[in-house]
Amino acid sequence: MTDHAVLLAIRRAFVVVVVGNQIGLTLPSLAGHPHGTPAWIAYALLTAVLAVVAGHVAVGRAQLHPVVAASVTAAVLTASVLAATGLPAEASFGAADWAFGLVGWYLLLVLLEWPRVVVAVLAAHICFCSAWFAHAGDGDVGNAGVVILSGTSFQLGVLVMARVVLRDARLAAAAAAEQEAARTREALTRQREQDLRAGFEGQLGAVLPLLADLADGVVTSGDEATRLRCSVAAVQLRRLFAENDDVPDPLLHELTACVDVAERRGVVVSLAVSGVAVEVPTEVRRELVAPMAQALAVAEGRAKVSLLRTGGEVRVAVVADAPAVPPQAPVEPVAVTVETSVHSGLVRSEARWRTT
Fold it and tell me: Which segments cross the bilayer (predicted)?
C-alpha cells in the first residue's frame, strides 16, 4: 500500500471517530445543559471543519493543503475559545464541557501530517482551557487533572500510532521500490548478457566452421589456406573482445587490437590518427573496422592504417602488402561505405561513415 493510501485510510478513520464523538457524545451534552449562543456557534464551526475535511477524503485527497489546514485549525481554536468561555458556572472539565476532548480529535484530524504542530496547537488548547478554569476558580482541580491527563494521553497515543503506521508504510514502499529497482537491474543485466552472447555467436560464425574442420581433420594447420583462415579468425576474435572493453575511444581501441594481432604475426604496421574522438555506435564501429581487419589478417610484410575524424565524417583506411582479400559472407551495410581494391600485391580498403 502506498503512503498516500495509508494516509487517506487513517484520515478516514479519524473522520469516523470525530463524527461518532460529535453526534454520539458531545451533542447530547450540549443539548442537555444550559449553553448559550457561543456554544452553538462553536458547534457549527466544528461541523463546518468536519465537512471540509470529509469533502477532501470523499474525493480521495489524503493531504490537506497547508492554507486549508491553517484555516480550519484557526476555526477549531476559535470554537475551543467560544465553547470554553460559554460554559455554565462550574462546568469546566465536567459533564457539560462538551468541547474539550472533541477539539483534540479535530486537531488530530486536521494536522495529521504535521505531528509537531499538532502537539503545539493541542498544548495551546489545553493551556487556554486550564487558564479559563483557573480564572473561573470554581471547579474541582482533581477532576480537571484527570480529564486533561486521560483525554490528552489517549489522543497523543493515537497520534503516535498513526505516525508509526505512516512510517512503516513509507519504509515498506521504499523497500518495494528498491526491490523493483533490483529486479530491473537484474533483468537489464540478463538482457545485456544475452545480447553479448548473441553478438559473440554472430561474430564467431566464421570461427566455428574452422574449428570444426580442424577437429574433424578436414583441413590441416600446414595448409596455406588454413593458416589464412586462422589469421582472419584471430583478428576477428581480438576485435570482438576489444569491442566490449570500457575505454574512452572504442573505435581506436578496436583498431589497435587488430594492429596488435598483425604485429604478432610479424607484419610491420604504422597507425596514423587524426581528429578528436567522436561517439560511434557499436554496429557502425564493426563495419568500419571489418575491412581493415580483413586486410591486416592477410597482410604479408607492411601495412599502413589511418583513422581520420572530422566534423562530419569518420574514415578508416588501410594499405597492406597482400596478394588478395579472402571472400566474406555478404553483409548488408548499415551506414558505412566501403571501397576495396587489390592491385600489384597491395590491398587498399577504405570505410567511411558520415556522422551527420
Answer: 12-31, 37-59, 66-87, 93-112, 117-135, 141-162
